[in-house]
Amino acid sequence: MTLDFYLARRFLRALLIVSGTFSGLTVMIEMLEQVRRFGGSDINAGGLFSLALLRLPASMYELLPIVVALATLVMFLGLARSSELVVTRAAGRSALRALVPPVIVAFVFGLLTVAVLNPLSAAAAREYEQREAEIAGGGKQAFSVSDEGLWLREGDADGQTVIRATRSNTDASILWDVTFLGFAPDGTLNFRIEAEEAKIGPENWTLSGAKYWPLADTQNPEAMSTLHDTLQLPTQLSPDEIRDRFGKPNEINIWDLTAFIEKLEAAGFSARAYKMWLQSELALPLTFIAMVLIAAGFTMRHTRLGGTAPRVLIAIILAFLFFFLRNFANILGQSGEVPIALAAWGAPLAIILAATALLLHLEDG
């Protein structure tokens, strides 16, 4: 038990060191990116640094599987150089038994990542988007889904238009039971339009069964209202932009993701990308375990036996290959080429089994 706690502490320390190193490098890179994007804006160095910090959780979140693999390499290379692995084997511990503590730490770290870091990353990403929109002058489109339907906002220096629809078709090109509210740049409400259907086209909405109320400079909007079989309304949106404005799945708190998926499907949209993200997040602890096993399989032998550098290089290459395989499987799951469960859980489970077989062959075989 004492040895298990010792190995767990060593792995946790390596994990903290590698995470801290990557975090520092990421902040510097993000700082340069913010200077490039907003250097010409009226924002000081403190504001740019705060933007870089807001980007840090999301950037690090994507790199965590690689961080876990590198932490495993750091731990076992250190144990091999100090001959502690030799002592461990002499005490009767097999390679697989010595891997139990770091595997448990990786699994717990995965659970904490999904339960705690995921919401933090999502909140930071939303705050960054809001700050970015404020710096850009508030002209960015917005999208949200609620119990009342879906909401869109688009606008520029000439004003804003808020759109609410009860539901939509799958590709977001047609909205039903639609309300358009037009606002002047000073926030004054200019008009209201109710339509049975709104179809988006190049540079305009085509409204069917529409009723128009002018609200600026009129005491009786109902008396001035007009009915239209069809009505054209200019827009800067396209179906692709509407779908893009759903927000990336990683910008939604995992605790709210199931409810968001239900609302999105009730509004008529496909939620496959969000379902894929949810399953891949639930499988993240297994992904961390797979990274530990990949890295450990090539670094548990004593350094005096030679060949350490090639083995480390092979472990790093395999870790990156698994990282890209996982992302590729997620893409296949989002596109519907493979079932979501298989895309999310298949890759880490397959790597865990393969890495375990490699460990049995190299260390205990």
Strand elements, count? 7
Strand order of the largest sheet: 1-2-3-4-5-6-7
Major sheet attributes: 7 strands, antiparallel
Shape: elongated
As a whole number of angstroms, the C-alpha radius of gyration is 27 Å
Percent of residues in helices: 55-70%
Tell me the β content: 15-25%
Q: Give the helix tally.
A: 11
How many domains? Answer: 2
Average pLDDT level: 82
Coarse structural class: alpha+beta
Report the uncertain regions: none
User: What is the N-to-C succession of helices and strands?
Assistant: HHHHEEEEEEHEHHHHHH
Terminal residue distance: 25 Å
Commentary on this structure:
This protein has 365 residues and is an alpha+beta fold. It has two domains: 234 residues, no CATH class; 103 residues, Sandwich (lipopolysaccharide transport protein A fold), CATH 2.60.450. It is 61% helix and 18% strand. The protein contains eleven helices and seven strands. The chain has a seven-stranded antiparallel beta sheet. A hairpin with a 2-residue loop joins β2 and β3. α2 crosses α9, α8 runs parallel beside α11 and α10 packs antiparallel against α11. The longest helix is centred in the first third of the chain and has 41 residues. The chain is elongated. 32% of the residues are buried.
